[in-house]
């Protein structure tokens, strides 16, 4: 578990997932399950490599998805917070590590 504490911009119940290795698994690794009650989410790239993140349940590929550089974060907020699966894949030759939290 990372040392990051997510202070969401919206009130609700926060859940924090374990850190996940983001590698070149086809379709990407699952960071968050689909959740129609999601109000906000935070994805943090804790590693040394760049990753791509999809937020609609579609497969992440090295050339498809939002780019999250090493050490950066992606915050998804209401009123249009995506409810689909959040998936990630490394976009270079270096595996990275991610942590994902959400508020419902």
- Structurally, the number of domains stands at 1
Low-confidence stretches: none
Q: Please give the oligomerization state of what you see.
A: single chain
Can you tell me the CATH superfamily?
Jelly Rolls
CATH architecture: Sandwich
CATH topology: Jelly Rolls
Q: Measured on Cα atoms, how large is the radius of gyration? A: 12 Å
Count up the helices.
0
Structural class of the secondary structure composition? mainly beta
**What is the overall shape?**
globular
Please give the CATH class: Mainly Beta
Percent helix range = under 10%
Distance between the termini: 20 Å
Mean pLDDT over the full residue set = 88
State the major sheet: 5 strands, antiparallel
Describe the overall structure.
The chain is mostly beta strands. The protein has one domain (14-103): Jelly Rolls, CATH 2.60.120. Helices cover 0% and strands 38% of the residues. The strands form 2 sheets. Strands 1, 2, 4, 7 and 9 form a 5-stranded antiparallel beta sheet that branches. The two termini are 20 Å apart.
Q: Which key phrases capture this entry?
A:
104 residues; mainly beta; Jelly Rolls; five-stranded antiparallel β-sheet; four-stranded antiparallel β-sheet; 9 strands; 38% strand; globular
Kindly summarize this structure in a few lines.
This protein is an all-beta fold and 104 residues long. It has strands spanning 14-16, 20-22, 29-32, 40-45, 51-54, 66-68, 73-76, 86-90, 96-103. The strands form two sheets. Strands 1, 2, 4, 7 and 9 form a five-stranded antiparallel sheet that branches. The protein has a four-stranded antiparallel sheet with strand order 3-8-5-6, with no helix packed on it.
